[in-house]
Amino acid sequence: MLDNSTSAKPSVSWALGLSRGGLIDLPGVGLAHEAAATALNRLMKRAQKSGFKLSIASGHRDYGRQLTIFNAKMCGERPVYGDSGALLSKQLLGSRDWLHAILRYSALPGTSRHHWGTDFDIWDPTAVPKGYALQLQPSEYGRDGPFAQLSSWLTSLMVKDDAEGFYRPYTGELGGVAPEPWHLSHRPSAELFQPLVESAPLIQVWSGQAQQLGQSPECEALAGLREVKAQHEAIMAEYVRSYWV
Ligand SMILES: [Zn+2]
């Protein structure tokens, strides 16, 4: 059985999504931290025995991918929604509230837990009709949603600390991130990355000056950098560190 002692050691560039580090490529899972992938495989097998097909909607995501998502929202090229589902306007909100509206649903590049290969968005394709377009909305995982049974099965394991090390960091109880009942994190692996996500290297990378950390020279700078830099300590506390275990 593999555990963290046999997995590759996390580095700063891996933690920030700038390198693949020791990620392994597993069929059905994709790129993942080795110990997290092993635990996920065990959880999937147990899910199968209980009648679920626990599947990955989204696993590892690198810095460049997260930067594209964040910049597009920051620049108003991708829709930004409020909690009620209403489309928000950058002009009406102002730059500070606009940034926080984005951070509620999208992490700043370099701070996404998906960079680590320890966190996975899950669903069950056998619980919905063929061709179903997954929304990743809390209602899909709530009482009347198609993934309610899978979700309560996972909760029943988590309350007994019997979910192969997985927990849900985004329950809506802490910090500023909206509830994400689909987001599972492998706690023993994820906690190794947390101390590596620090403001100094992040600001370097966001400014486009971090070739030594693995950012490619053509990688664009972070949109809204001035606003992010002005508030980065508060942002780190509210959207990043409040979810550390
Ligand atoms: Zn997620």
Q: What is the topological layout?
A:
Blueprint: H1 12-15, E1 24-26, E2 30-32, H2 34-49, E3 55-58, H3 63-74, H4 90-93, H5 95-103, E4 119-123, H6 138-141, H7 148-159, E5 166-167, E6 183-186, H8 187-193, H9 199-206, H10 225-230, H11 232-240
Antiparallel strand pairs: 1-2, 3-4, 4-6, 5-6
What does this structure look like?
- This protein has helices at residues 12-15, 34-49, 63-74, 90-93, 95-103, 138-141, 148-159, 187-193, 199-206, 225-230, 232-240; strands at 24-26, 30-32, 55-58, 119-123, 166-167, 183-186.
- Helices cover 37% and strands 9% of the residues.
- The strands form 2 sheets. Strands 3-4-6-5 form a 4-stranded antiparallel beta sheet. The protein has a two-stranded antiparallel sheet with strand order 1-2.
- By secondary structure, the protein is of the alpha+beta class.
- The protein has 11 helices and 6 strands.
- β1 (24-26) and β2 form a beta hairpin.
- It is globular.
- The protein has one domain (4-243): Muramoyl-pentapeptide Carboxypeptidase, domain 2.
- The model has no long low-confidence stretch (mean pLDDT 92).
- The structure holds zinc ion.
- Zinc ion binds at residues 114, 119, 121, 180, 183.
